[in-house]
Write a structure and sequence with these properties.
- This protein is of the alpha/beta class and 278 residues long.
- The chain contains 11 helices and 11 strands.
- The strands form 2 sheets. Strands 8-7-6-9-10-11 form a 6-stranded parallel β-sheet, sandwiched between helices. Strands 3-2-1-5-4 form a 5-stranded parallel β-sheet, covered by helices on one side.
- Helix 11 links the parallel strand 9 (231-233) and strand 10 (253-256).
- It starts with a strand and ends with a strand.
Length: 278
């Protein structure tokens, strides 16, 4: 059995599940999701995978927190789930094929390489419930090519996160917008952000639409709408990474920031080769 520790917001959860699902599927073994971290800390909208996607037939969900049982808990966990493999280096793709048949994956696993062999199955699992009312609102703007543009600021500029995620991206956005204007005929930019005031003051004019339709428990719908666009300008965020990856168009163009973190090193495996770094 493969057990994966699920933690963080929706984008992180999707990477963790995808890597573990691919490994379990390759081996033909069961998959279990350890969601015990959300009893201690529940960022953003908490654990969302089971609410948004039909993962129940493919994985069991466990909230058992062995860590709170000390040495006895660690012993029981190893007996029931196998040894714990903690991601040793976020900046390098690990060879998961050499791990024991029963193992606990504890990390972020943020690379398409972990699940590229099962990409079609992952996309089939990560299908949002149809939202006709959103499609109707988006349809109003489809007289021109649509490009999603994601601005993430809120938690990234907190005292806890700024040192890691606080990358100034104003010049990046300007260059990315200019690139799409050269690639597409008169594109319209759909702006998705957790700081709508900043987005509205930064992206002004008839070419920009501030998407303020989805808040709170409906925030995931921003990802759904991103995936419906023709092109994508990412923030340094796994949320918009998945919005772009779930777009099935073979001719899509995706731009991502070269600097994902405020300090070096930068991840070399996170951005697919066909996407453009600026």
């Amino acid at each position: 059995m493969i057990t994966v520790v699920i933690q963080g917001g929706l984008g992180n959860q999707m990477f963790q599940f995808a890597a573990a699902y691919a490994l379990a599927r390759t081996r033909g073994v069961d998959l279990q999701l350890d969601i015990s971290s959300y009893a201690r800390q529940s960022p953003h909208q908490g654990f969302e995978l089971d609410r948004l996607f039909s993962i129940a037939p493919h994985a069991r969900i466990s909230a058992t927190d062995f860590a709170r049982r000390g040495r006895v808990g660690a012993y029981l966990e190893r007996c029931l789930r196998g040894p714990r493999y903690t991601e040793p280096d976020f900046f390098a793709v690990q060879d998961l094929s050499i791990l024991p048949m029963s193992v606990i994956l504890d990390g972020f696993w943020q690379s398409e390489r972990y699940f590229s062999a099962h990409a079609d199955a992952i996309r089939a699992l990560y299908q949002f419930v149809p939202a006709p009312q959103l499609d109707e609102r988006l349809q109003v703007y489809t007289d021109r090519p649509l490009v999603s543009l994601h601005v993430r600021r809120g938690d990234y500029y907190s005292a806890h996160s700024a040192a890691l995620h606080g990358v100034p991206l104003q010049a990046y956005y300007a260059q990315a917008v200019a690139s799409f204007r050269g690639w597409l005929h008169h594109p319209r930019f759909m702006i998705f952000s957790d700081d709508l005031d900043f987005a509205a003051s930064t992206f002004q004019g008839k070419d920009f639409v501030i998407v303020d339709w989805n808040r709170g428990q409906d925030s995931y719908r921003d990802m759904y709408l991103m995936s419906r666009c023709e092109g994508h300008i990412l923030a340094n965020s796994t949320f918009s990474w998945w919005g772009a990856w779930l777009n099935k168009r073979v001719d899509k163009r995706v731009i991502a920031p070269r600097r994902w973190f405020a300090k070096d090193p930068q991840p070399q495996h996170l951005i697919p080769e066909s996407w453009v770094l600026i």
